[in-house]
Specification:
With 176 residues, the chain is α+β, with helices and mostly antiparallel strands. The chain has a 6-stranded antiparallel beta sheet, with no helix packed on it. Strands 2-3-6-7 form a 4-stranded antiparallel beta sheet, with no helix packed on it. The chain starts with 12 loop residues before the first helix and ends in a 10-residue tail after the last strand.
Length: 176
């Protein structure tokens, strides 16, 4: 198999073969071998991947801000279960501390792991409860999971801690 065949360029095999022949001829005229074409494609793919990763990293980091000093904690007196995506999340009882905020609200970190899961399974997850600011249009609370806690640098660049799993029934809590 020739290196070009990994990248189909036509609607069927004959068109793809014809396009490949034209490209081979064109690059042969400029003294570029097939290896050089593969190298150029590899460089292009790597550059594209780095550009997309950098954009995701900048977009995910730009929205999180430090919580102002004096922001109060919240306390859940008993564990509470809420839907999250296609599964569920159980918020443990205890005092939740403000971890960070965005323009939409404050992210409170749970005192212990949350229990998240779906039909027939459950697993511990770091994260907490999101409380929206009073002036935001969406007043639904949400679960958030710290997907970057044990992630590699590459995985951390492609995940977001600010991803929310909203639910309609609010979690009951008290402030000091």
């Amino acid at each position: 198999m020739q290196p070009f065949n990994r990248f189909p360029l036509g609607k069927n095999k004959k068109q793809t073969h014809n396009v490949h022949l034209i490209l081979r001829t064109l690059f042969a005229q400029f003294s570029l071998g097939l290896c050089a074409l593969d190298a150029m494609m590899l460089i292009h793919v790597k550059a594209s991947f780095l550009a997309v990763s950098a954009a995701i990293l900048l977009a995910s980091c730009a929205s999180a801000q430090v919580v102002p000093a004096g922001t109060s904690t919240i306390t859940l007196n008993m564990p509470q279960r809420r839907p999250a995506g296609l599964g569920f999340v159980v918020f443990p009882a205890g005092t939740y501390t403000p971890d960070f905020q965005t323009a939409d609200g404050i992210y409170y970190r749970a005192p212990t792991h949350l229990a998240g899961g779906g039909p027939g399974f459950s697993r511990p997850l770091r994260g907490g409860l999101f409380i929206p600011f009073a002036n935001r249009p969406n007043q639904n609370q949400a679960a958030w999971f710290d997907e970057q806690e044990n992630a590699s640098l590459l995985l951390a660049a492609t995940t977001s801690t600010t991803r929310l799993w909203r639910f309609s029934e609010p979690v009951a809590f008290t402030r000091p």
